[in-house]
Amino acid sequence: MRPVADMFRPLSRPAEMIHSSSLLVLAITAGIFVVVSALLVFVVWKFRRKGPEDDLREPPQIYGSTHIELAWTVVPILITVVLILVTSRTIGEIQNRVMPENAVQIRLVGHQWWWEIHYEKEGIVTANELHVPLSRRDGTGERPTELILESADVIHSFWVPQLAGKTDLIPNRKNRTWIEPFVTGTFFGNCAEYCGTQHANMLLRVIVEEPEDYEKWVRKMRQPAAVPHADLAAQGHKAFFANSCINCHMVDGTVAAGVFGPSLTKLMTRQTIGAGVAPLTPETLRAWVRDPQKLKTGCLMPDMKLPDSEVDSITAYLLTLK
Ligand code: CUA
Questions:
Q1: How many CB atoms lie within 10 A of CB 108?
Q2: Which atom of ligand 1 is nearest to the CA of 156?
Q3: Ligand 1 atom closest to Cα of residue 169
Q4: Based on the domain organization, do 196 and 281 belong to the same domain?
Q5: Euclidean distance between CA atoms 59 and 67, whole angstroms
Q6: In this structure, are 117 and 46 located in the same domain?
Q7: CATH for 296
Q8: Which stretches within 57-172 are classed as H helix?
Q9: 146 C-alpha to ligand 1 centroid (Å)
Q10: Does residue 238 share a domain with residue 101?
């Protein structure tokens, strides 16, 4: 359930750029390590104590050598300049990328401890799972996704290792990054800046789909929520709107317009509950409605202390949101 995200297997453009420049940096620093360690071993061996007469002899005293001092000043400066150039070129290439017209535009807002997701052009609001189209690198269908990063409370950090490097989400500030995945699949990310009790359970999934499947997903997400007619779900619908659920949660097209918690409009299209704390199943959903503090201690949704009948009916209603 807690998959590894491997930063050494980049599958998207910015991640690939960062990967190759970090390999270069690693090679340069590994070279320095080998040279320095070899010299150290050599010196320790060469000037070892050879016998009791060494204890009395004072080593030769050398005062100042312009050549040596120049060497150990100039060489590190040159190496540092190379490292600065390598990294700033990559940073510049990522930051200055001009997004094409067709780029998907997502506003990602970090919350304690979940991700609010807005598709600006499509008018979709969702949470914790990004769907993005595949970008074909052969030039027949390049389609990057631009991410505008904001925070509703404290500093969080966006990091999906196989897709892009880290970028912080800072209150009162808009940061920007982008991804351009070359393969379909599900990629795992994590908030990468300690942001409170449930920082470790602030997981993010990026689902990369074929362009057709992505468009299908967009159409599905834009359909209004149906009002349930089945008994239990209909009761749950009533209970949901009679309780304080709607102060924090949104169900598109209804009076539920809360923004403090994740949008529930298409809840059942998601793979997990509680920003990745558990897979989303009828059982975990019921457990969450019963008492979210059991699944995710410290999360901002309190135990609503609902009677069993309402826990069952509200769960039945939520199961219809797909
Ligand atoms: Cu959000 Cu750590």
A1: 21
A2: 1
A3: 1
A4: no
A5: 21
A6: yes
A7: 2.60.40.420
A8: 66-95
A9: 21
A10: no
Q: Are 236 and 217 members of one domain?
A: no
Over 80: is that where the pLDDT of 125 sits?
yes
The predicted pLDDT at position 3 comes to 57
User: What is the full DSSP assignment across 197-259?
Assistant: TTGGG-EEEEEEE-HHHHHHHHHHHHSPPPPP-SHHHHHHHHHHHHSTHHHH-B-TTSS-B--
- Name the residue at shortest CA distance from atom 1 of ligand 1: 156
For residue 186, pLDDT beyond 90:
yes
Provide the pLDDT for residue 4: 62
**Cα-to-centroid distance, 260 and ligand 1 (Å):** 16
Inter-residue contact 121 to 159 (CB < 8 Å) = no
Place of tokens 């004072």: 58
Query: CA 87, CA 235: separation in Å to the nearest integer?
Result: 58
- Residue range of the domain that includes 184: 1-222
Q: Determine the distance separating the centroid of ligand 1 and the alpha carbon of 192, expressed in angstroms.
A: 6
The 10s digit of each residue's pLDDT in 293-320 is 998 998 999 888 888 888 888 998 998 8
Count of all residues that appear for the chain in the document:
322
Q: Determine the atom of ligand 1 nearest the C-alpha atom of 190.
A: 2
Q: How many CA atoms lie within 13 A of 118 on its CB side?
A: 13
Q: SS3 helix, strand, coil % of the chain, rounded to 5? A: 40, 20, 40
pTM, full prediction: 0.87
The encoded tokens of residue 102 equal 């067709």
- The Å distance, Cα 220 to ligand 1 centre, comes to 30
Ligand 1 atom having least distance to the Cα of 110: 1
Strands (E), the chain: 104-111, 114-119, 124-127, 129-133, 145-151, 156-160, 164-169, 175-179, 185-190, 203-209, 272-273, 278-279
CA of 31 to the centre of ligand 1 (A): 36
Question: Is the model's pLDDT at 147 over the cut of 90?
Answer: yes
| Binding pocket residue ranges, ligand 1, CB within 6 Å | 110, 113, 156, 191, 193-195, 199, 202
Ligand 1: centre distance to CA 196 (Å): 7
